[in-house]
Design goal:
Layout (H helix, E strand, L loop, with lengths): L1 H23 L10 H29 L8 H24 L11 H5 L8 H19 L4 H4 L1 H8 L1 H16 L6 H23 L20
Helix pairs in contact: 1-2, 1-3, 2-3, 2-8, 2-9, 3-5, 5-8
């Protein structure tokens, strides 16, 4: 129940953030014929950032490097909320393209991989990223049913989901040439690389138990 409340609160917070991001992306209000295009752009960046936050938070939590700095329960909440909220913004990013007058996408172009009329492979990466992220998010509540080993294997798909979204955004994003967008993609990639190295190489030192010797008094003869 607490996880659901965290998810609702997180979605509400990032919805406001995404709205502000889209509002500031153009000097005019979303009243024109291409308002859905601006919505899709803002939702796409927000979804990408949340997907990255879920992957990055999960790596830090599992590496134990942040133990003592950030409680693991908070990293887990960040991991789950970001992953779930990212799905909502990814769906908004996809669906907002349908009513836009700059594009000619239909619903099946966007939900069926390789069905888009243009840039089929790159658009398919975005669709596959959404489906992989959905599978990972659903697995949060399936761990007891599928087992820890399978659950961890499924969670590795979050890397593929993030990587697909990263390349999809770089290649198709209209803002990819901007300095701030390039910095976002480069910074998040470096952060994931850093966290992955920590996860693979860092080992927390185990506390040694101090041996206690019990001296027995000599028996009286």
């Amino acid at each position: 129940m607490r996880g659901v409340l965290y998810a609702i609160g997180g979605i509400a917070a990032v919805t406001l953030a995404g709205w502000l991001l889209g509002f500031m992306s153009e000097s005019q209000l979303w009243l024109g014929a291409h308002g859905p295009w601006y919505v899709s752009r803002a939702a796409g960046f927000t979804a990408y950032f949340l997907l990255w936050a879920g992957v990055f938070g999960g790596l830090l939590m599992s590496s134990a490097w942040f133990d003592g700095f950030v409680h693991r329960a908070r990293l887990l909440a960040m991991h789950q909320v970001a992953s779930i909220a990212g799905l909502g913004f990814a769906a908004l990013h996809l669906l907002a393209l349908i009513p836009d007058q700059w594009t000619t996408y239909q619903i099946w172009h966007l939900v069926v991989p390789f069905a888009a009329p243009v840039d089929r492979s790159l658009n398919a990466l975005g669709t596959l990223s959404l489906y992989l992220a959905l599978i990972v998010a659903v697995s949060f509540w399936m761990r007891s049913l599928i087992g820890t080993t399978t659950w961890r294997t499924v969670h590795y798909a979050s890397f593929a989901a993030w990587g697909a979204a990263w390349w999809h955004g770089i290649q198709l994003g209209t803002d990819s040439g901007e300095v701030w967008a390039a910095g976002l993609y480069a910074g998040t990639a470096l952060a994931v690389g850093f966290a992955t190295v920590l996860r693979v190489t860092y080992r927390k030192e185990q506390r040694r138990r101090t041996e206690v010797t019990h001296e027995h008094p000599a028996r009286a003869t």
